[in-house]
Write a structure and sequence with these properties.
single chain, 455 residues, mainly alpha
């Protein structure tokens, strides 16, 4: 019989790991606002400045598959201290960076820290929390992380436009990470036994190169077709090598056999589509405000703020709904609200105001808050504890890929329209997001029907 309870130390450990993940997302979203300014500061092109994001995503794609191995091999508290130390080091490097290469190096160090810490929060919850309250706690963890996209754009725009300058983005986050480190050292406890297992280095390298080349291909979409083809072919080669190798070894770094589970694989596909939609709209909306309405980056950030805060506050509520009523109702209701929100966007964006766009975005984030975290919780719910660590690693790894895909593909669709206000580009982008949400809804309905789960 399960005798786990929610303790103050468990809650504090969730806060500590959540704050570190929060810091990573805040920096990522704040930096997107600073790109035009940094191009002038360093005399660099947009393609060069974009490496601040690309390098971060590449490191995440390399670190995420290691999370299940790290969980078995090392003490959780030591891993957290290492993650926080890398992140703090990256912040200091960036705050003092004299040139763009050093600035990118700092982002790489932050990527290592986030890559270790992001799966840790979910592993702690899945291992230590009562099963009937895991949805609530994953919602709490997502609330901490989900406030970052709300704060990031406004935070970045405000600091860049102030006398403090862009370096203050990193200085302001340093105390947050330091507080997270102190809380983590005090609260994080070890529950699972440490196993001295061997790392499947070949499998890890194959998987890392697969995701790295996929992300590189995505970042080149709409810019250099030749590099897209080269990186795409390399990704295909390493996909074949990964499948071949994982069939050969007894203890692969990630179990591809989990994909045979229709419940898990269906939720994983749905989760990727969710992340594609969230990041795609998060890119489209601020650009629409600036290009179509002619507003500043700060106003664009403020447009997203109410919706992002609403979505963050609803994450624990959505998790509690799952614990009480099961997965079907909150997930399908949430995806339906997201779809309605994007359809309204599509109908009104040509003749809209900032206030109207902010209101419609709140409909979307209302659905996001009660559905997206629950897709992850539900997808891992029918697995044993060891498989949950592997499944969590897959969710977190593919989340980064789907987010990069959403940003890249929507940006290309908008950029294909060369008119001054890019009305057709925004229209086609919103149509793409609508189709994606309908597919997402169809996938989830099918998964629940095949597994005979009713509302």
């Amino acid at each position: 019989m399960e005798n786990k309870t929610i303790t103050p130390t468990l809650l504090l450990s969730i806060v500590a790991t959540g704050l570190l993940s929060f810091s990573g997302v805040v920096i990522e979203t704040a930096m997107n606002i600073t790109f035009p300014h940094l191009m002038k500061v360093f005399g660099a092109s947009l393609s060069s400045i974009q490496w601040l994001t690309t390098s971060y995503l590449l490191v995440l794609s390399i670190m995420m598959p290691l999370s299940a191995y790290f969980k078995q091999r090392f003490e959780t508290k030591k891993l957290f201290v290492i993650a926080a130390s890398f992140f703090l080091g990256g912040l200091l490097v960036d705050a003092l960076a004299p040139n763009l290469p050093i600035l990118i190096m700092g982002r790489v160090l932050q990527g290592v820290g986030t890559g270790i810490s992001l799966p840790m929060m979910f592993n702690i919850i899945l291992e230590q929390a009562p099963r009937h309250q895991q949805g609530l706690l994953i919602g709490v963890g997502n609330f901490i992380t989900a406030t970052a996209p709300a704060i990031g754009p406004t935070f970045g725009g405000m600091l860049v436009d102030s006398s403090l300058g862009w370096r203050s983005i990193f200085w302001v986050i340093i105390p947050v990470v330091a507080i997270a480190l102190i809380i983590g050292v005090v609260s994080i406890q070890q529950y699972s036994e440490i196993k001295y297992i061997k790392l499947d280095i070949t499998g890890w390298l194959n998987l890392s190169l697969l995701f790295s080349f996929l992300i590189l291909a995505l970042t080149q979409l709409g810019q250099q077709t030749g590099w897209v083809l080269i990186f795409g072919c390399l990704a295909l080669i390493f996909l074949v090598l990964t499948i071949f190798w994982y069939k050969k070894v007894d203890s692969p770094i990630i179990k591809l056999s989990l994909f045979k589970n229709s419940w898990f694989s269906g939720h994983l596909i749905a989760f990727m589509l969710c992340q594609f939609e969230v990041m795609g709209l998060a890119f489209l909306l601020p650009n629409l405000v600036q290009i179509l309405l002619g507003k500043t980056s700060f106003v664009a950030g403020l447009t997203m703020l109410p919706g992002a805060v609403l979505g963050a506050f609803l994450a624990p509520i959505g998790g509690n709904l799952l614990d009480k009523y099961g997965a079907v109702k909150p997930i399908l209701a949430g995806i339906s609200l997201e779809t309605i929100g994007v359809i309204i966007f599509l109908s009104v964006f040509q003749n809209s105001s900032v206030i109207m766009l902010a209101g419609v975005y709140m409909i979307f984030t209302l659905g996001q808050g009660i559905s997206v975290p629950n897709v992850l919780t539900s997808g891992l719910s029918k697995m044993n504890l060891k498989d949950k660590a592997d499944g969590n690693a897959m969710f977190n790894t593919l989340q980064q890929f789907a987010g990069a895909a959403g940003t890249s593909i929507i940006s290309i669709i908008i950029a294909t329209d060369h008119t001054s206000h890019q009305l057709y580009g925004f229209n086609h982008g919103l149509v793409t997001l609508t189709i994606g949400l309908l597919i997402d809804l169809g996938v989830l309905v099918t998964v629940f029907a095949v597994n005979k789960v009713r509302a």
